[in-house]
Amino acid sequence: MANTDFRTCSLSGLKIHRSSELLIRWNLIAAFATLAVGGLMGLLVLLTRWPSVHLLPVEHYYRFLTAHGLDALLAWIIFFEIALVHFTSAVLLGTRSYVTWLGWVAFALMLIGGALINTIVVLGRADVMFTSYVPLKADPLYYLGVILFAVGALIGFIHFFINIVLSKRDGGFKRSLPLGSFGLAAASIIGILTLAHGAAIFLPTLLWSMDVIPTIDPSAYRLVFWGLGHSSQQINVCAMVAVWYMTSAFVVGGKPVNEKLSRTAFVLYILFINLASEHHLLVDPVLSSWHKVVNTSYMMHLAVLASMIHAFAIPASMEVALRKQGYTRGLFEWLKKAPWGNPAFSGVIISIVLFGFLGGITGVIFGTEQFAIIRHNTFAITGHFHGTVVAGTTIAFMAFTYLLIPFIFKRELIWKGFASIQPWLYGAGVATLSIGMMSAGSFGVPRRHYDITFSGAPFSFTFDPAIDMFMSMMGVGGVLAAAGGFLFILIAFGSIIFGKKMEQR
Amino acid sequence: MHEKREDGPIPAGQRFYDNIFLLLVLGVVVPTLIYTVWGLVEIMYIPRLPIVP
Amino acid sequence: MPKYDHREEMEAPGVFVLALIFLAVFIVIWFAHLKWLSNIWGIQ
C-alpha cells in the first residue's frame, strides 16, 4: 500500500512528509507577511530620514522605527529560519516531521507574540526601539510579546534537534548530516544560546516594567541583551550560508569542494561568532580592555576566517559543477553560461557579493575599538547592518523562496520575467542605500535621529553639505529596494495563490 | 573524483563534527563563559557610589 | 619510469582568478576610501 504521508517532488527528487510541508508553508507565509509589514515600516522611516521628504511626525518616526526593527530584523527572518529548520531536518533527509504538534505550538507562540508586539508598538505603548534599553520602559505586554515570540522560536530550534535524532534512528542519514542540515544545526545551536540570553534579560525586564523589581542595571542589560541581539544575527549568517550551499546544489548541482573545510567553518561560527556581541559594548566604559579585545579581535577574526572559507567554497562549488556540465572553455565560460536568469541563482550570487563586501567587511572594521569609537551611533552602523541582514540574508532568503515555491507549495512562479530581475532591483537598491548611509555616517550623521537639521533647537549645527548627496543616495536606494521588496511580496503571494499548480507524484 | 569510503575508521574530526549535542554544549558554554559570565563579573566588581545623605 | 605527478589540477581556476581580481579592486577601493576619510576627519 502506498504511503500517502510522503510525496516525492518531481523537480528536486526530495521525499516530502505532508506534516513537514504544512509547517514549512505556514512559517513561510508568516515570514512573507511580516516582511511586508516590516518593509512598509522601513519605507516610511526612510522617507522620514530623507531630509528632502521628512514624511512622518516625530512620535510616529520612533514608533515605526521600533516596528521596522522588530518585524524586518526579528520576525521575518526567524519565521523563515524556522521554515528552514523543518526543511533541513525532515525534507532534506527524506524523513518525517516528528512531534509535529510541537512545531505548531512553536508557530502559534511566534504568531501570538509577533501580533502582540506589533499591536502594542502601533498603539504607542512601546516607543523603545528594537533594543528597548533600560531605563526606557515599555508596556509589560510588549516584553511579554517578545518572550512569547522567543519561546516559540526556541521550541522551533529544539524541534530541529528532535527531528535530527529521530531521523538518524529511522535511517534519514547514516553518519554525517548533509551540509545544508549541518548549517541549520549550527544556526539552531546559536539559536538556543541566543534565546537563553533573551529569556535571561527579558524576564527580569518584564518584572521591572511591572514594578516588581525596582531597578535593572543598564550595563548588565546591554551585555545580556546583545547576547540575544547580535547572536540572533549569527543565526542569520549560518542560515544564509546554508542557503547558499543548498541553492548551489539545487540549481547547478554544486557539491562542497571540501566538506571538512566547510564544516570547520560552521564549527568556528558556533564557537566564536557569538562574541561579536561585544562590539555593541566597545564604547561602554564599564568593561575592561581585556574583555573587549578578547571578545572582538581574537574571537571575531576566527569567525571571519570561517566567512572567508565559505566565500570561496561556494562559488568554487558552482564552478566545479558547471565545468562538469561541459562549460570548460577558458577561465570564465562557466560564469557566462551560468543560469543568471534563474532568480534563485542570481539572488545567491548577489547576496554573497554584497554581504561580503558591504556588510561583512564593515562589520569587522566597526568591531574594532578604534573605529567603533568613531562610528558608534552614526548612520554608518545602520549602513553596515543593512549590508548584512538585508543585502545578505534577506536576498538569500528571497532567492531560496524561488525554489521553495515550486518544491513546497507545488506552484509555478508567476511573472517569471519580473522574478528574474527582482534580486537585481532589490540588490541595487539596498547596496545604494547602505553605501549612502555609511558615507553619511562618516560625516557624523546620527542613527535613530528624527531631524538632523535640529530645527527648533536652541543651538544650530550644520553638517558638511556633502551629506545631502549621501542622504539622497540613501533615499533613492531605499525606494528602489522598497520597489524590489514589494515585487517580491507580490510574486511570492501571487504564486502561492495563483501560480499554476504543478503535478506531483 | 571524490569517492565515498564506506570502510575504514572515521576520522576523529568527523566524529567530533557529527556529535551535534557536543557542539551544542560547546556552542552554549564557550560564549556564555567568555562573554556573558566574564562581563557580568566585571560589572559586579565596579564599586558603587556611596549615597551621600 | 616518469615520476608520478602528485599535483592535482586546480578545480576552480575561474574562482581563483576572480578572487585575485576582487582582491585587487578591494585594495584600490580600500586605500581610496581611507584617503577620503582622512580628508573628512582631518587626519594629517
Provide structural commentary.
The complex is a heterotrimer of chains A (505), B (53) and C (44). Chain A has a domain at 339-505. In chain A, 71% of the residues lie in helices and 1% in strands. Chain A contains 14 helices and 2 strands, in the order E-E-H-H-H-H-H-H-H-H-H-H-H-H-H-H. Chain B has a domain at 16-44. Chain B has 2 helices and no strands. The N and C termini of chain B lie far apart (80 Å). With 44 residues, chain C is mainly α. Helix content of chain C is 66%, strand content 0%. The mean pLDDT of chain C is 84. Classes of the chains: A mainly alpha (505), B mainly alpha (53), C mainly alpha (44). Chains in contact: A-B, A-C. At the A-B interface, helix 5, helix 6, helix 7 and helix 8 of A face helix 1 and helix 2 of B.
What's the gyration radius of chain A in Å?
22 Å
Strand order across the largest sheet of chain A: 1-2
**Multimeric state:** heterotrimer
Major beta sheet summary of chain C: none
What is the residue-averaged pLDDT of chain C?
84
State mean pLDDT of chain A (0 to 100 scale): 92
Main sheet summary of chain A: 2 strands, antiparallel
**How many extended strands of chain C?**
0
Shape call of chain C = rod-shaped
Number of strands of chain A: 2
Terminal Cα separation of chain A, in Å? 15 Å
Residues in helices of chain A, as a percent range: over 70%
Strand share of the residues of chain C?
A: under 5%
Stretches with pLDDT under 50, minimum 5 residues of chain A: none
Order of helices and strands of chain A: EEHHHHHHHHHHHHHH
Which ranges of chain C are low-confidence, i.e. pLDDT below 50, for 5 or more consecutive residues? none
SS field, number of helical segments of chain C = 1
Q: Into which percent range does the helicity of residues of chain C fall? A: 55-70%
Pattern of helices and strands of chain C: H
Tell me what portion of residues of chain A adopts beta-strand conformation. under 5%
Shape by Cα distribution of chain A: globular
